[in-house]
Amino acid sequence: MGFIQEFKSFAMRGNLIDFAVGVVVGGAFGKVTGVFVDGIVMPVIGTLIGNQDFSEMKVAIQNSKKAILDSSGNIIEKEVPEVYLRYGEFISSIIDFTLVAFAMFLVVKAMNRIRNAEVAEPAAPAAPNKQEQLLEEIRDILSRK
Predict the structure, then answer these.
(1) Do strands 83-85 and 59-62 pair parallel, antiparallel, or not at all (unpaired)?
(2) CB-based contact 66:76 (threshold 8 Å)
(3) What's the per-residue H, E or C state across 24-43?
(4) Lowest-pLDDT choice from 35-39, 63-67, 130-134
(5) Which of 28, 26, 50, 40 minimizes the C-alpha distance to 92?
(6) End-to-end CA distance of the chain, in Å?
(7) Which end of the chain is more exposed for a tag (fewer CB within 10 A), N or C?
(8) Whole-number Cα distances in Å, 68 to 60, 73, 74
(9) 65 phi, psi to nearest 5 deg
(10) What confidence score (pLDDT) does residue 123 get?
């Protein structure tokens, strides 16, 4: 089998296509969940804890101005960028992840329920026909002797 034929058979497998569809749908679902968390959940939580915007919750590690000694020993202020720990965005991401994980749990649970319903108990064996009944009776008679 040539390389191109092998790649074609690999790419056209059902599992690979299902995986690709899952990635695309999962990406779209992640965007929807992100917007839901940022636009609906976090403002409600922010209002409940005192009108705070979670995206603005941060702690400054380094201020914008820093005192430095120049070569002659004079103190000068140098403008440097501020550095923050943005824990509000982290909290928002945790909530986003939790909602996505919960939704995926529900989807997998529903799929398992459907799969288990399809693999329901096998039908009871059919009743023996007349020939089998006669053979069983003969067997029983012989076993009694």
Answers:
(1) antiparallel
(2) no
(3) HHHHHHHHHHHHHHHHHHHH
(4) 63-67
(5) 40
(6) 67
(7) C
(8) 19, 9, 8
(9) -115, 140
(10) 67
Residue 5 carries which side chain, given as an amino acid letter?
Answer: Q
Cβ atoms 90, 54 nearer than 8 A? no
Average pLDDT estimate for 115-141: 80
User: Which structural domains are found in the chain, ordered by start?
Assistant: 7-120 (1.10.1200.120)
Q: Provide the token pair at 133.
A: 């009944």
Q: Is the pLDDT of residue 120 over 70?
A: no
Does 135 or 117 have the greater pLDDT score? 135
Instruction: Identify any residues that bridge with 84 across adjacent strands, giving them in sequence order.
Output: 60
DSSP code, position 50: T
What pLDDT, on the 0 to 100 scale, is given for residue 14? 65
Cα–Cα distance for residue pair 122/109, rounded to 1 Å: 23
Place of tokens 């000068």: 76
